[in-house]
Amino acid sequence: MTPVDLHCHSNHSDGLLPARDVVRKAFDRGCQLFALTDHDETRGLAEAEDEARQLGMKFINGVEISVSWGKHILHIVGLGFDRHNEALLAGLASVRSGRGERAERMAAELDKVGIHGTLEGARQYADNPEILSRAHFARHLVKTGVCKDMGSVFKRYLVRGKPGFVEHEWARLHEAIEWITGAGGVAVLAHPARYEMGNETLRVLLTEYKRLGGEAIEVVSGCHGIPDAARFGRLAQEFGFLASCGTDYHATGEGAREPGLNPDLPMDCQPVWHRWLPPETMPSSISAG
Ligand code: AMP
Ligand code: MN
Ligand code: MN
Ligand code: MN
Protein backbone atom coordinates (compact mmCIF):
# COMPACT_ATOMS: atom_id res chain seq x y z
CA MET A 1 0.00 0.00 0.00
CA THR A 2 1.03 3.61 -0.56
CA PRO A 3 0.62 6.06 2.36
CA VAL A 4 -0.68 8.80 0.07
CA ASP A 5 -4.23 10.02 -0.54
CA LEU A 6 -4.68 12.79 -3.10
CA HIS A 7 -8.47 12.71 -3.55
CA CYS A 8 -10.93 13.08 -0.64
CA HIS A 9 -14.09 15.02 0.14
CA SER A 10 -15.41 16.77 3.24
CA ASN A 11 -18.76 18.37 4.08
CA HIS A 12 -17.54 21.53 2.33
CA SER A 13 -18.76 19.69 -0.79
CA ASP A 14 -20.54 16.33 -0.87
CA GLY A 15 -18.62 14.41 1.78
CA LEU A 16 -20.27 13.77 5.15
CA LEU A 17 -17.44 14.56 7.58
CA PRO A 18 -15.82 17.88 8.53
CA ALA A 19 -12.43 18.37 6.84
CA ARG A 20 -10.59 17.90 10.17
CA ASP A 21 -12.16 14.48 10.67
CA VAL A 22 -11.22 13.29 7.18
CA VAL A 23 -7.62 14.41 7.76
CA ARG A 24 -7.51 12.60 11.11
CA LYS A 25 -8.98 9.42 9.61
CA ALA A 26 -6.29 9.43 6.90
CA PHE A 27 -3.52 10.04 9.44
CA ASP A 28 -4.80 7.25 11.70
CA ARG A 29 -4.44 4.79 8.83
CA GLY A 30 -0.83 5.77 8.26
CA CYS A 31 -1.14 8.43 5.56
CA GLN A 32 1.97 10.59 5.03
CA LEU A 33 0.77 12.93 2.29
CA PHE A 34 -2.82 14.10 2.00
CA ALA A 35 -4.87 16.41 -0.25
CA LEU A 36 -8.44 17.50 0.36
CA THR A 37 -10.19 17.83 -3.02
CA ASP A 38 -13.71 19.15 -2.55
CA HIS A 39 -15.84 19.74 -5.65
CA ASP A 40 -15.32 23.27 -7.06
CA GLU A 41 -14.49 24.53 -3.55
CA THR A 42 -11.40 25.43 -1.55
CA ARG A 43 -12.93 26.67 1.69
CA GLY A 44 -12.01 23.54 3.67
CA LEU A 45 -8.30 23.74 2.89
CA ALA A 46 -7.19 26.02 5.75
CA GLU A 47 -8.95 23.80 8.29
CA ALA A 48 -7.53 20.62 6.76
CA GLU A 49 -4.02 22.05 6.61
CA ASP A 50 -4.20 23.16 10.23
CA GLU A 51 -5.27 19.68 11.36
CA ALA A 52 -2.54 18.02 9.27
CA ARG A 53 0.09 20.36 10.74
CA GLN A 54 -1.00 19.49 14.28
CA LEU A 55 -0.75 15.80 13.46
CA GLY A 56 2.59 16.13 11.66
CA MET A 57 1.29 14.89 8.30
CA LYS A 58 2.22 16.51 4.97
CA PHE A 59 -0.65 18.34 3.34
CA ILE A 60 -1.11 19.91 -0.09
CA ASN A 61 -3.99 21.99 -1.42
CA GLY A 62 -6.49 20.22 -3.64
CA VAL A 63 -9.76 20.73 -5.52
CA GLU A 64 -11.88 18.70 -7.96
CA ILE A 65 -13.23 20.83 -10.79
CA SER A 66 -16.37 19.88 -12.74
CA VAL A 67 -15.83 20.17 -16.50
CA SER A 68 -18.03 19.80 -19.59
CA TRP A 69 -16.17 18.22 -22.51
CA GLY A 70 -18.62 17.79 -25.37
CA LYS A 71 -21.44 15.72 -23.89
CA HIS A 72 -19.12 14.29 -21.24
CA ILE A 73 -18.72 15.46 -17.65
CA LEU A 74 -15.09 15.22 -16.53
CA HIS A 75 -13.50 15.85 -13.15
CA ILE A 76 -10.10 17.53 -13.03
CA VAL A 77 -8.28 17.42 -9.72
CA GLY A 78 -5.86 20.27 -9.00
CA LEU A 79 -3.00 19.64 -6.56
CA GLY A 80 -0.39 21.79 -4.86
CA PHE A 81 -1.66 25.21 -6.03
CA ASP A 82 -1.68 28.57 -4.25
CA ARG A 83 -5.12 28.61 -2.68
CA HIS A 84 -5.22 32.44 -2.67
CA ASN A 85 -4.78 32.73 -6.45
CA GLU A 86 -7.47 35.12 -7.65
CA ALA A 87 -8.11 33.65 -11.10
CA LEU A 88 -8.54 30.17 -9.60
CA LEU A 89 -10.90 31.45 -6.90
CA ALA A 90 -12.96 33.42 -9.43
CA GLY A 91 -13.15 30.41 -11.73
CA LEU A 92 -14.31 28.11 -8.95
CA ALA A 93 -16.89 30.68 -7.80
CA SER A 94 -18.29 30.78 -11.34
CA VAL A 95 -18.61 26.98 -11.41
CA ARG A 96 -20.30 26.93 -8.00
CA SER A 97 -22.74 29.65 -9.00
CA GLY A 98 -24.45 27.39 -11.54
CA ARG A 99 -25.26 24.66 -9.03
CA GLY A 100 -28.31 26.27 -7.34
CA GLU A 101 -30.24 26.77 -10.56
CA ARG A 102 -29.27 23.28 -11.76
CA ALA A 103 -30.61 21.80 -8.51
CA GLU A 104 -33.92 23.64 -9.02
CA ARG A 105 -34.24 22.11 -12.50
CA MET A 106 -33.41 18.65 -11.13
CA ALA A 107 -36.11 18.98 -8.46
CA ALA A 108 -38.62 20.20 -11.09
CA GLU A 109 -37.89 17.12 -13.22
CA LEU A 110 -38.30 14.80 -10.23
CA ASP A 111 -41.62 16.55 -9.45
CA LYS A 112 -42.84 15.48 -12.90
CA VAL A 113 -42.38 11.82 -12.00
CA GLY A 114 -44.15 12.26 -8.68
CA ILE A 115 -41.18 12.70 -6.36
CA HIS A 116 -41.76 15.95 -4.53
CA GLY A 117 -39.79 18.14 -2.14
CA THR A 118 -36.35 16.99 -3.25
CA LEU A 119 -34.79 20.48 -3.38
CA GLU A 120 -35.58 21.09 0.28
CA GLY A 121 -34.60 17.50 1.07
CA ALA A 122 -31.23 17.75 -0.68
CA ARG A 123 -30.52 21.12 0.99
CA GLN A 124 -30.78 19.49 4.39
CA TYR A 125 -27.76 17.36 3.54
CA ALA A 126 -25.69 20.20 2.08
CA ASP A 127 -23.56 21.90 4.73
CA ASN A 128 -22.20 24.27 2.08
CA PRO A 129 -25.20 25.91 0.39
CA GLU A 130 -23.07 26.72 -2.68
CA ILE A 131 -22.37 23.04 -3.34
CA LEU A 132 -25.66 21.30 -3.88
CA SER A 133 -24.69 18.04 -5.55
CA ARG A 134 -26.41 14.98 -6.96
CA ALA A 135 -24.99 13.14 -3.94
CA HIS A 136 -27.18 15.30 -1.65
CA PHE A 137 -30.27 14.46 -3.71
CA ALA A 138 -29.27 10.78 -3.56
CA ARG A 139 -28.90 10.77 0.24
CA HIS A 140 -32.34 12.36 0.58
CA LEU A 141 -33.92 9.79 -1.78
CA VAL A 142 -32.38 6.93 0.19
CA LYS A 143 -33.48 8.46 3.50
CA THR A 144 -37.08 8.86 2.27
CA GLY A 145 -37.16 5.26 1.02
CA VAL A 146 -37.40 6.02 -2.71
CA CYS A 147 -34.34 3.82 -3.30
CA LYS A 148 -32.41 1.40 -1.12
CA ASP A 149 -28.94 2.87 -1.68
CA MET A 150 -27.02 5.65 -3.44
CA GLY A 151 -26.06 3.45 -6.38
CA SER A 152 -29.71 2.69 -7.15
CA VAL A 153 -30.67 6.37 -6.97
CA PHE A 154 -28.06 7.27 -9.55
CA LYS A 155 -29.00 4.37 -11.82
CA ARG A 156 -32.73 5.08 -11.69
CA TYR A 157 -32.88 8.86 -11.42
CA LEU A 158 -29.66 10.85 -11.64
CA VAL A 159 -27.69 9.81 -14.72
CA ARG A 160 -28.26 11.04 -18.28
CA GLY A 161 -31.51 9.70 -19.72
CA LYS A 162 -33.11 9.30 -16.28
CA PRO A 163 -35.86 11.54 -14.88
CA GLY A 164 -33.78 13.69 -12.51
CA PHE A 165 -30.82 14.35 -14.80
CA VAL A 166 -30.53 17.79 -16.37
CA GLU A 167 -27.88 19.06 -18.76
CA HIS A 168 -25.54 21.67 -17.32
CA GLU A 169 -22.57 23.69 -18.53
CA TRP A 170 -19.60 23.23 -16.22
CA ALA A 171 -16.13 24.74 -16.75
CA ARG A 172 -14.35 24.15 -20.07
CA LEU A 173 -11.41 21.73 -19.96
CA HIS A 174 -8.87 24.42 -20.90
CA GLU A 175 -10.23 26.75 -18.21
CA ALA A 176 -9.93 24.18 -15.42
CA ILE A 177 -6.36 23.34 -16.43
CA GLU A 178 -5.40 27.02 -16.73
CA TRP A 179 -6.87 27.88 -13.31
CA ILE A 180 -4.87 25.07 -11.70
CA THR A 181 -1.57 25.54 -13.52
CA GLY A 182 -1.87 29.35 -13.34
CA ALA A 183 -1.98 28.98 -9.55
CA GLY A 184 1.18 26.84 -9.61
CA GLY A 185 -0.60 23.50 -9.31
CA VAL A 186 -0.67 20.20 -11.19
CA ALA A 187 -3.76 19.06 -13.10
CA VAL A 188 -4.83 15.44 -12.63
CA LEU A 189 -7.57 13.76 -14.69
CA ALA A 190 -9.74 12.12 -12.01
CA HIS A 191 -10.99 8.49 -12.19
CA PRO A 192 -10.69 8.11 -15.99
CA ALA A 193 -12.32 4.66 -15.96
CA ARG A 194 -15.60 6.26 -14.89
CA TYR A 195 -16.12 8.16 -18.12
CA GLU A 196 -18.43 6.36 -20.48
CA MET A 197 -16.52 6.74 -23.73
CA GLY A 198 -14.99 4.38 -26.23
CA ASN A 199 -11.28 3.84 -26.55
CA GLU A 200 -10.99 6.19 -29.49
CA THR A 201 -12.71 9.07 -27.71
CA LEU A 202 -10.59 8.41 -24.63
CA ARG A 203 -7.44 8.79 -26.73
CA VAL A 204 -8.75 12.04 -28.19
CA LEU A 205 -9.38 13.23 -24.63
CA LEU A 206 -5.92 12.24 -23.36
CA THR A 207 -4.28 13.92 -26.36
CA GLU A 208 -6.22 17.16 -25.89
CA TYR A 209 -5.73 17.10 -22.11
CA LYS A 210 -1.97 16.75 -22.59
CA ARG A 211 -1.86 19.54 -25.19
CA LEU A 212 -3.74 21.85 -22.81
CA GLY A 213 -1.22 21.29 -20.00
CA GLY A 214 -2.64 18.28 -18.13
CA GLU A 215 0.32 16.58 -16.43
CA ALA A 216 -1.16 13.65 -14.52
CA ILE A 217 -3.99 11.11 -14.42
CA GLU A 218 -5.39 9.04 -11.59
CA VAL A 219 -4.24 5.47 -12.10
CA VAL A 220 -5.23 4.12 -8.68
CA SER A 221 -8.64 5.39 -7.52
CA GLY A 222 -11.40 4.27 -5.19
CA CYS A 223 -13.53 4.21 -8.36
CA HIS A 224 -11.08 1.91 -10.23
CA GLY A 225 -10.72 -1.84 -10.11
CA ILE A 226 -7.35 -3.58 -10.50
CA PRO A 227 -7.78 -3.96 -14.30
CA ASP A 228 -8.54 -0.22 -14.54
CA ALA A 229 -5.33 0.62 -12.70
CA ALA A 230 -3.33 -1.62 -15.03
CA ARG A 231 -4.95 -0.09 -18.11
CA PHE A 232 -4.48 3.52 -17.03
CA GLY A 233 -0.96 2.77 -15.82
CA ARG A 234 -0.11 1.72 -19.37
CA LEU A 235 -1.86 4.76 -20.84
CA ALA A 236 -0.01 7.07 -18.42
CA GLN A 237 3.28 5.69 -19.68
CA GLU A 238 2.26 5.83 -23.32
CA PHE A 239 1.10 9.46 -23.08
CA GLY A 240 3.80 10.56 -20.65
CA PHE A 241 1.53 11.39 -17.71
CA LEU A 242 2.50 11.26 -14.06
CA ALA A 243 0.32 8.89 -12.03
CA SER A 244 -1.81 9.82 -9.02
CA CYS A 245 -3.77 7.88 -6.43
CA GLY A 246 -6.78 8.78 -4.30
CA THR A 247 -9.57 7.03 -2.46
CA ASP A 248 -12.28 9.56 -3.50
CA TYR A 249 -13.60 9.13 0.04
CA HIS A 250 -16.99 10.75 0.70
CA ALA A 251 -18.49 8.90 3.66
CA THR A 252 -17.94 5.65 5.48
CA GLY A 253 -20.19 2.98 3.97
CA GLU A 254 -20.81 4.87 0.73
CA GLY A 255 -17.68 4.06 -1.22
CA ALA A 256 -15.14 1.32 -1.46
CA ARG A 257 -12.33 2.77 0.66
CA GLU A 258 -11.56 4.69 3.81
CA PRO A 259 -9.20 7.66 3.41
CA GLY A 260 -5.45 7.41 3.87
CA LEU A 261 -3.97 4.47 2.00
CA ASN A 262 -4.09 3.36 -1.61
CA PRO A 263 -2.93 0.23 -3.41
CA ASP A 264 0.48 0.65 -5.04
CA LEU A 265 0.74 2.04 -8.55
CA PRO A 266 1.47 -0.47 -11.32
CA MET A 267 5.19 -0.92 -12.03
CA ASP A 268 6.98 1.79 -13.97
CA CYS A 269 4.43 4.54 -13.23
CA GLN A 270 5.94 7.89 -12.19
CA PRO A 271 4.18 9.07 -9.01
CA VAL A 272 2.94 12.65 -9.17
CA TRP A 273 3.58 12.95 -5.41
CA HIS A 274 7.37 12.74 -5.66
CA ARG A 275 7.48 16.53 -5.94
CA TRP A 276 5.97 16.83 -2.45
CA LEU A 277 7.18 13.59 -0.90
CA PRO A 278 10.59 12.80 -2.46
CA PRO A 279 11.32 9.06 -2.72
CA GLU A 280 14.36 9.32 -0.41
CA THR A 281 12.01 10.38 2.44
CA MET A 282 9.89 7.22 2.09
CA PRO A 283 10.70 3.67 3.14
CA SER A 284 12.18 1.71 0.20
CA SER A 285 9.21 -0.67 -0.01
CA ILE A 286 6.94 2.20 -1.01
CA SER A 287 9.33 4.60 -2.70
CA ALA A 288 8.64 3.18 -6.14
CA GLY A 289 5.02 4.14 -5.68
P1 AMP B 1 -22.54 16.50 -9.16
O1 AMP B 1 -21.20 17.15 -9.01
O2 AMP B 1 -23.64 17.27 -8.51
O3 AMP B 1 -22.86 16.13 -10.59
O4 AMP B 1 -22.48 15.14 -8.35
C1 AMP B 1 -21.51 14.18 -8.65
C2 AMP B 1 -21.24 13.36 -7.41
O5 AMP B 1 -22.23 12.37 -7.26
C3 AMP B 1 -19.94 12.59 -7.49
O6 AMP B 1 -18.86 13.39 -7.09
C4 AMP B 1 -20.17 11.47 -6.53
O7 AMP B 1 -19.96 11.94 -5.21
C5 AMP B 1 -21.65 11.20 -6.69
N1 AMP B 1 -21.91 10.06 -7.60
C6 AMP B 1 -21.85 10.07 -8.94
N2 AMP B 1 -22.21 8.86 -9.44
C7 AMP B 1 -22.48 8.07 -8.38
C8 AMP B 1 -22.91 6.72 -8.20
N3 AMP B 1 -23.15 5.92 -9.24
N4 AMP B 1 -23.11 6.27 -6.94
C9 AMP B 1 -22.90 7.07 -5.88
N5 AMP B 1 -22.50 8.36 -5.98
C10 AMP B 1 -22.29 8.85 -7.20
MN1 MN C 1 -18.64 13.71 -4.98
MN1 MN D 1 -15.21 12.83 -9.28
MN1 MN E 1 -14.17 13.06 -6.00
Automatic annotation (TrEMBL):
Keyword field: Hydrolase
GO molecular function list: 5'-3' DNA exonuclease activity; 5'-3' RNA exonuclease activity
Hydrolase among keywords: yes
Pfam families: PHP (PF02811)
Signal peptide start and end residues: none
Residues covered by the Polymerase/histidinol phosphatase N-terminal domain: 4-69
NCBIfam families per UniProt: nside_bi_sphtase (NF041577)
Name of the molecule in the record: Histidinol phosphatase and related hydrolases of the PHP family
Organism: Iodobacter fluviatilis
Native organism taxonomy: Bacteria, Pseudomonadati, Pseudomonadota, Betaproteobacteria, Neisseriales
